[in-house]
Design brief:
With 321 residues, the protein is mainly beta. 8% of the residues lie in helices and 29% in strands. The protein has a domain at 180-269: Trypsin-like serine proteases (Thrombin, subunit H), CATH 2.40.10.10. The strands form 3 sheets. Strands 4, 11, 12, 13, 14, 16, 17 and 18 form an 8-stranded mixed beta sheet that branches. It has a 6-stranded antiparallel barrel with strand order 5-6-7-10-9-8. Strands 3-15 form a two-stranded antiparallel sheet. Residues 53-281 form the Peptidase S1 domain.
Length: 321
C-alpha cells in the first residue's frame, strides 16, 4: 500500500502578492513556518520519506500544468505548514485527489485550515496563489485497506476562474496496454537522487503487472510504470494523463517500493465517474418515471353454443369462467 508523505518546501515563503486571501493563512504564513513531513522537521528528513517521481524530468515550461495543486494545511499550535499530496483542478471550484489523502487523517491539520497551492508556485519560493478548502468529499465506497475507490473531491471556498481545469477522461473509456501516459508530481529524479524544487513529469506505459496486487480491481483501477519510471511516496493524489494531452485518466494511488508498476484510481469507471459528476453538479437530470402500464383489454365473452350443450361443451364453458 502506498504511504502518504508530504511534498516538502525548503525555501523561504514570501506572501507579498497574497492580498485579498484569507487573513488567517496570510498572517500565519508570514511567520516563516517550519516545513514538516508528518511532524518531522526538514533538517531531520529521512530520504525514504521524500516525495519522488522516479525517472522524471522538470516540467517545461513551469506553468505547463496550471491546474496542478499541492494539498496543504496549517497547525497554529506547532507553527507549521504541512504539504502531503497532489491534486488537480477539475472545475473552477473543485479539486480531485486521492481519498487516502484525507486531511482529517493528519494530526498536523487544524480544522478548517486546509488549502491548495497552485503550481508553479509551490516550490518556487513564493506562494502567490492558493485557495482555502471548504468541504472534503470522499467516495462513499472508499476502502482504506484495499484502496478501492481511492477518490476525493475538495470543494474550494473561492472560484478559480483564471485557471483552466484539467479535462477528465470520458466515461467507460480505457487505454490499451502499452499506451504512454504522463504522471506529474514534485520530488526526486530517482530514488537515490537529491530532491528537486521543480514540478516533475514522467512518461509511464499502461501495464497489466498490477494484477500481482491481491486487491487490484481493473474495473476501478489502472496500472502504469516500471522499475525505471514510476510514481513514489508523496505523489499520491496527482494525475495520470494521456501523454501529450491534458486529459486525466487516473489518480495516483498506490505502489510498492517505488520500483514496480503503480496503481491509479480509474476515473472512467462508471461508479467513479458518475459520483464525480454528481458531486460537482454535472449529473444528467433523472429520467422521467415510466408511464403506468396500460390496462389489459377485456376478455371477449364466449358465444354460447346453440341448442342444449353436451357434457363436454359444458365442461369447457365452465373452465373458461
Amino acid at each position: 500500500r502506498c504511504r502518504q508523505t508530504c511534498l516538502p518546501l525548503w525555501s523561504p515563503i514570501s506572501l507579498n502578492s497574497m492580498a485579498g486571501r484569507t487573513s488567517f493563512v496570510r498572517s500565519f504564513l508570514l511567520a516563516q513556518l517550519t516545513m514538516v513531513v508528518y511532524g518531522r522537521k526538514i533538517a531531520k528528513l529521512n530520504s525514504d520519506l521524500v516525495t519522488t517521481i522516479v525517472g522524471g524530468d522538470p516540467v517545461d515550461p513551469p506553468d505547463k500544468f496550471p491546474w496542478m495543486v499541492a494539498l496543504a494545511c496549517l497547525n497554529e499550535a506547532q507553527d507549521q505548514m504541512t504539504i502531503w499530496c497532489g491534486g488537480s483542478l477539475i472545475t473552477p471550484n473543485f479539486v480531485l485527489s486521492a481519498a487516502h489523502c484525507d486531511p482529517a487523517k493528519l494530526s498536523e491539520c487544524d480544522p478548517g485550515a486546509t488549502f491548495v497551492i497552485f503550481s508553479p508556485y509551490v516550490l518556487g519560493g513564493n506562494i502567490s496563489k492558493l485557495a482555502m478548502v471548504d468541504t472534503v468529499l470522499l467516495h462513499p465506497s472508499y476502502n482504506d485497506h484495499t484502496l478501492a475507490y481511492d477518490v476525493m473531491l475538495l470543494k474550494l471556498e473561492s472560484t478559480e476562474e483564471d485557471t483552466v481545469p484539467v479535462e477528465l477522461s470520458p466515461k467507460d473509456s480505457s487505454l490499451p496496454l502499452g499506451t504512454t501516459c504522463t504522471a506529474v508530481g514534485w520530488g526526486q529524479t530517482g530514488v537515490e537522487e537529491p530532491r528537486s524544487p521543480d514540478l516533475l513529469q514522467a512518461n509511464l506505459d499502461i501495464s497489466d503487472a498490477c494484477t500481482a496486487y491481491s486487491a487490484f480491481d481493473p474495473i476501478i483501477m489502472m496500472c502504469a510504470g516500471d522499475s525505471d519510471r514510476n510514481i513514489c511516496l508523496g505523489d499520491s493524489g496527482g494525475p495520470l494523463l494521456l501523454a501529450g494531452t491534458s486529459v486525466q485518466y487516473g489518480i495516483s494511488s498506490f505502489g510498492s517500493d517505488c520500483q514496480f508498476p503503480s496503481g491509479f484510481a480509474r476515473i472512467s469507471s462508471p461508479a467513479i465517474y458518475d459520483w464525480i459528476q454528481t458531486e460537482i453538479g454535472n449529473a444528467p437530470p433523472p429520467l422521467p418515471p415510466p408511464p403506468p402500464p396500460s390496462p389489459p383489454p377485456p376478455s371477449p365473452s364466449p358465444t354460447p353454443p346453440e341448442g342444449p350443450p353436451s357434457s363436454s361443451t359444458r365442461a369447457q364453458y365452465i373452465s373458461v369462467f
